[in-house]
Amino acid sequence: MFRIVSKKTLAQGTVIHMKIEAPQIARKARPGQFIILRVDEKGERIPLTMASTDPEDGTIDIIFQVVGKTTALLSTKDVGEYILDVVGPLGRPTHVENVGNVACVGGGTGIAVLYPIAKAYKDAGNRIISIIGARNKDLLILEKEMREISDEFYITTDDGSYGEKGFVTDVLRRVLDEKKDLKLVIGIGPVPMMKYLSFLTKEHGVKTIVSLNSIMVDGTGMCGACRVTVGGKTKFTCVDGPEFDGHEVDFSELEKRLSAYVNEERLAMERFKCTCEK
Amino acid sequence: MEEKRRREKIPRQKMPEQDPKERIRNFLEVPLGYPPDVAKLEAERCLQCKKPPCIEGCPVEVDIPGFIKLIREGDFLSAAKKIKEKNALPAICGRVCPQEVQCESKCVLGKKDEPVAIGRLERFAADWERERGEVSIPEIKEKTGKKVAVVGSGPAGLTVAADLTVLGHDVTIFEALHKPGGVLVYGIPEFRLPKSIVEAEIKYLQALGVKIEVNSVIGKIRSVDELLNEYDAVFLGLGAGLPLFLNIPGENLCGIYSANEYLTRSNLMKAYLFPEYDTPISKGKRVAVIGAGNVAMDAARTAIRLGAEEVHIVYRRGKDEMPARKEEILHAEEEGIIFDLLTNPVRFIGDERGWVKEIECIRMELGEPDASGRRRPIPVKGSEFRMPFDLVIVALGTAANPLLTQTTPGLVLNERGYIVADPETGKTKKEKVWAGGDIVTGAATVILAMGAGRKAARSIDEYLRTGKW
């Protein structure tokens, strides 16, 4: 059982930030790694990346958007309540080195995954150019945290309610044109964003890392639910990733695999809403 | 002599089963177990050999004539106790052991007639004890103060833990998933091994004093070397745990599962009860299971219970070469599973949404025997054809999962990634570390893993008492 020690609502009530007591995981976790949790006895196992960890307090931070039954149920849990199962740290940690100019591009809740990685790159002495975006101003998360670790900082919103109107990739295109010494792009967000971002950086010949949010069950390489084609070969996101070379990932396949259970997800959500209204 | 003749006339007693037409609509157990009078009658058949060959066929050396004699006398509780002297998980073994190639294959009666139904009797005694709630705890030796970490809570790990606890050591099991039991809970379906039975047998181990920490992926949350700082010995019973795929085009289409994923969703996550349980599973109307081992039969029989209209086993060799137990094949046939033998998939074809819709297969013929002794399947040129399927389960077996072994310096692996361990003691090349079960042998059976656990426990106990590696 894992106790929730704090809970904050970000972005119009649809994005939640929780601090969970998990001392062993907090001690071991490194940037880029994730956990799998199960809210209750009938719950499914879902992967979530840790936005940060505090080894001294023995806590880990998760940031999630309410998108389906499991995240909706999780969002109803309050401080002092427990999550039944949390397992981790899973996946390979981010490979961090000092390369120079690094663009950190985050969209939506992908910014929560991006933040610890960007911070690790900053701590390693890199110059960080951050570009973060959301559909509108209220949905933008971790602005302050990202700004603190950035040497250059850009914000975009789809509707122009904050920062530049447009997509993060619009700004990235400009940065790619202007900065000839950009060494690495880290792009994390919705699949269409990562797909287009990787297309852009490939044209410019800039190395690109993306972090994938495949469907998983065990998270230890035992089931293969999270398989993804990278460079023509099948990889497991849970043990080979979650980070891969963006130029090699088959994003179309990933998008299709992520939608494998849309009907079941809709049904589960409808049932959940019914029980909540009762 | 008359007595002997009377016994010889008793035929091997059948175990009642759920009717196939009924059972394909539920997940309840298929064989229903012996009633007491039938168990006693079957026990009458045992010749009580002076040098019983059946015990030689048992990897954990259960006193088979001993417990059968007690059943014959109607002392069912003592029979269960007798089995538990050697086997901490009798209700499980009575159900999933391949007795026909172990104890029962050695039974003297089997030479002329059918062997004594040892597995069914074992199951009967264990069920009798559990259902009456009169589970006895064996005497535990004086505490030694030694601590042992067991990685993995499958059959090997559970056996090591039970044996060492009875010997007075302090044992903690680390399990990666959220429930203990390993393959017994994620792999074997409810209709073949009810999860309540696994839970009861694990509760029994906990009553002995075994501690279990779930959600602990060793190699991630702690390394083996970190465990060695805290524990006097470590046993690795991880299982094989890496699903094999065909590596043919289209294999990552939606609607194509590994058997591991399909069975884990259904068994561990209870997706067969979706939406009451949250984990979904694709049900499929026309389902193909690739492979013909026990796991393939489990997957096919799960698919039919989830409501598939047609379930096919697609296998590249012939009927005689199928690796599954005869009993499992028979159950699958009774349930209407269709066998497409000498048929090998060459690619999967998807629709515009990325879902599998067809398998292109090629016909095979059998040539000379290969290294496994089975006749080698050879493709028949130009015989490609397509079959429509909307769900595919790949059940080709497993390989060694590298998650722990790659993070453990000093461990020696073979060319296929399995841990090298002494077959008699389970000792690995790394001091204070033992291993057993599928991570040493490759995918095998529950009882073989338990046998390896038994041997390792003996060796660990000796080391803990003498300090000699």
Helix percentage of chain A: 25-40%
Q: What is the CATH class designation of the largest domain in chain A?
A: Alpha Beta
Poorly predicted regions of chain B: none
N-to-C CA distance of chain B: 54 Å
Biggest β-sheet description of chain B: 5 strands, parallel
What is the 3D form of chain B? globular
* Strands side by side in the biggest sheet of chain B: 3-2-1-4-16
Helix segment count of chain A?
A: 9
Number of extended strands of chain B: 16
Largest inter-chain interface?
A: A-B, 43 and 42 residues
The number of strands of chain A is 16
Overall tally of domains of chain A: 2
What's the rounded overall pLDDT mean of chain B? 94
**What's the gyration radius of chain A in Å?**
18 Å
CATH 2nd-level architecture of the largest domain in chain A: 3-Layer(aba) Sandwich
Structure, explained:
The complex is a heterodimer of chains A (278) and B (469). The model of chain A has no long low-confidence stretch (mean pLDDT 94). Chain A is globular, with a radius of gyration of 18 Å. Chain A has two domains: 2-90, Translation factors (Elongation Factor Tu (Ef-tu), domain 3), CATH 2.40.30; 101-258, Rossmann fold, CATH 3.40.50.80. Chain A has 278 residues and is an alpha/beta fold. Chain A has helices at 23-28, 69-75, 110-123, 143-148, 168-178, 191-204, 237-240, 251-258, 262-277, and strands spanning 2-10, 15-21, 34-38, 46-54, 59-65, 82-83, 85-90, 101-107, 127-134, 152-157, 164-165, 182-188, 207-211, 227-230, 233-236, 243-245. Chain B is built from 19 helices and 16 strands. In chain B, the strands form four sheets. Chain B has a five-stranded parallel beta sheet with strand order 3-2-1-4-16, with helices on both faces. In chain B, strands 6-14-7-8-9 form a five-stranded parallel beta sheet. In chain B, strands 10, 11, 12 and 13 form a four-stranded antiparallel beta sheet that branches. In chain B, helix 5 packs across helix 9 (118-131) and helix 10 (155-166) packs parallel to helix 19 (446-466). Chain B is globular and about 65 Å long. The mean pLDDT of chain B is 94. Classes of the chains: A alpha/beta (278), B alpha/beta (469). Chains A and B meet through helix 1, strand 7, strand 14, helix 8 and helix 9 of A and strand 5 and helix 14 of B.
